[in-house]
Amino acid sequence: MKRVTRFLVNVKKEMKKVRWPKRQDLIKYATATISFIIIFMVFFAGIDAIISLIMKLKVMG
User: Fold this and answer.
1) In whole angstroms, how far apart are CA 42 and each of 15, 36, 48?
2) Residue 56 Cα distances to 47, 49, 51, 52, 59, angstroms
């Protein structure tokens, strides 16, 4: 139990050292992350559609 208490005390000390982002920075980072996710989602959906089309054409041909 002593080790757990010491661990939690150390966690609290370390969390005070963390430099948390400002609200404006957080919004900027979140927007960038969501944008990249959407870009990659569209990219991979396009690749999937192209590969599916090729596979259908090979089956028909």
Assistant:
1) 37, 10, 10
2) 14, 10, 9, 6, 5
DSSP string covering 16-60: HH--PPPHHHHHHHHHHHHHHHHHHHHHHHHHHHHHHHHHHHHHH
In a domain, 1, yes or no: no
Per the CB < 8 A criterion, the answer to whether 21 and 29 are in contact is: yes
Domain ranges, residue 61: 22-61
Whether 17 maps to a domain, the answer reads no
Please give the tally of structural domains in the chain.
1
pLDDT tens digits for range 12-32: 999 999 999 999 999 999 999
| pLDDT given for residue 61 in this prediction | 65
